[in-house]
Amino acid sequence: MSIKESSTNNENKKTMESCCSEIYAVNLISGRWILSICYQLKQERLRFVELKNRIPNISERMLTLQLKKMEQENLVIKTVYAEVPPRVEYELSEIGKKLLPVLNQLEVWGKEHKASKKK
After folding, report:
1. What is the reported pTM?
2. Who's near 78: CB < 8 A, 6+ residues apart?
């Protein structure tokens, strides 16, 4: 869902992102799919179909949109090979790879939080 450019909500978001790097970072990786895509790309570069097959329930349209967003934000690198049929591969960029320790910490925290709720 996009936010209307002139809305108060959008202005608040921009202000918070400019003042707080943590909010900027969370907004960059928020949503249902970006961390899942990063997780799949952490070990190797993958083709679109391989990503689609590894991420349950993501539609082709949503995967395309998320990969475009990630490419625009310099989180992934898209490589197109001049072959017939065309071969396209995705991999984490250098700045995207720097997200991996954060992803690992989120995994640890998530496990601890789940366990604490069962008590």
Report:
1. 0.80
2. 67, 71, 88, 89, 90
